[in-house]
Design brief:
Number of strands: 6
CATH class of the largest domain: Alpha Beta
CATH architecture of the largest domain: 3-Layer(aba) Sandwich
Number of helices: 8
Largest sheet: 6 strands, antiparallel
Shape: globular
Distance between the termini: 15 Å
Strand order of the largest sheet: 1-2-3-6-5-4
Radius of gyration: 19 Å
Helix content: 25-40%
């Protein structure tokens, strides 16, 4: 793996791992170059990659959601395994758009078990699902997140107001409760995002990843 690719992946990993912390700017190129032991040019190329696939994390007053669809359905075999439910246990299924600073940035499709969330509605979906789950008395533990650079297809481009083939990040999330039960399964296509977190550099982790 090229050094700039390693830095891109490492920063993305740290961003997702600290998504609940206050927002700050990333360290300067010089500091990142010293931390990773590379040239400022390499850092600059890694940051360009982040910009091209970007992540935006904003306060709730800086973003909003718009519900596109909400319905119930029976789970497929994979969903039965993920949620630990039977073939006759209904799921909520919804699709929503996310706007940051009034710009459409994200398409999200998600599934939740009906048994936990019998009163899920448009108002909840267009606000905070995590606060809703906590209000149900559930204890949220962590998210299992997978991210992959993709290109926007024709249907996604029409919803997001961008060109087909625009670089994007496909983010797959499993929200996990204390006790390891999955409470939400989401797939996100994100086209505009910024790296705005500062994460303390972990030299031990870098040495481990570098095999030294």
């Amino acid at each position: 793996m090229k050094k700039r690719e390693f830095i891109t992946q490492d920063l993305l990993s740290k961003i997702f791992q600290t998504a609940s912390e206050p927002l700050h700017k990333l360290p300067a190129e010089r500091e990142l170059a010293e931390e990773y032991g590379v040239s400022r040019y390499t850092v600059r190329e890694a940051l360009k990659k982040l910009v091209s696939i970007g992540i935006t994390e904003k306060r709730f007053d800086q973003m909003r959601y718009r519900l596109l669809s909400l319905h119930k359905r029976l789970p497929g075999k994979e969903e039965q395994q993920v949620f630990g439910i039977g073939e006759n246990d209904w799921l909520w299924y919804f699709c929503r758009l996310r706007y940051v600073d009034d710009r459409c940035t994200q398409i999200e499709t998600s599934s939740l078990p009906l048994a936990h969330f019998p009163d899920l509605n448009q108002q909840v979906i267009e606000s905070s699902l995590q606060r809703y789950a906590i209000g149900k008395g559930l204890t949220l533990s962590h998210f299992l997140t997978h991210y992959q650079a993709v290109a926007v297809d024709k249907t996604q481009a029409a919803l997001l107001g961008c060109k087909r083939g625009t670089p994007a990040m496909k983010i797959t999330n499993r929200g996990i409760l204390a006790g390891s039960e999955v409470w939400i399964l989401s797939e996100v296509i994100d086209i505009h995002y910024e790296c705005t977190y500062v994460t303390p550099f972990n030299a031990d982790n870098l040495r481990f990843r570098s095999g030294s």
